[in-house]
Amino acid sequence: MYKFIFSAFEDEIASNLDEQIEVLQRHGIEYLEFRSANGKSVADYTENEAKEVLKKLKDSGIKVSAIGAPIGKVDVNCDFEKYLDLFKHIVELAHILETRYIRIFSFYVPEGEEEKYTDVVIERLSKFTEIAKKENLVLLYKNEKENMEAVPKGVLKSSPQSTHPI
């Protein structure tokens, strides 16, 4: 016999956390990928707010399967050091919310300039990976049509089978 564990994008149910929890419970779904609630992206939650979310979820018998982080959903030419601080904040939230998984993306690159930015994207994703590894976390990559790897050459160049370290 197989046991399936279902997880839901809770913010596609409703924006209010209480309503999200009520619907998840009604349908017997015990996990959610936390992206946003109460009008705030997970990236905007403080550590104290995340602790409040965790308490509500635990009281309801729901666990966080992953953080649905907006990491990598920005222009590749962003201020990366500042952006790295945001990633580190999300790492802390993952620990607070008791999940080992953070979903990320791979940056928006100017159309037609994918080759120019391949090494930059790989370097940035590698920095995220190094931090995650030190923190015993797993990064889950989600491809999006405007991201670097949406272009077939980008997928090939950044795949684990290539010579790049990701």
Automatic annotation (TrEMBL):
Gene3D superfamilies linked: Divalent-metal-dependent TIM barrel enzymes
Alphabetical list of PANTHER family matching this protein: HYDROXYPYRUVATE ISOMERASE, INOSOSE DEHYDRATASE
SUPFAM superfamilies registered for this protein in UniProt: Xylose isomerase-like
Keywords for this protein: Isomerase
Record field: transmembrane: none
UniProt source species: Caldicellulosiruptor naganoensis
Molecular function GO terms recorded: isomerase activity
Pfam families xref list: AP_endonuc_2
UniProt cross-references to InterPro entries, sorted A to Z: IolE/XylAMocC-like, Xyl_isomerase-like_sf, Xyl_isomerase-like_TIM-brl
Top-level taxonomic group: Bacteria
Domain Xylose isomerase-like TIM barrel: 22-144
Keyword Isomerase attached: yes
Protein name per the record: Sugar phosphate isomerase/epimerase
The keyword 4Fe-4S is assigned to this record: no
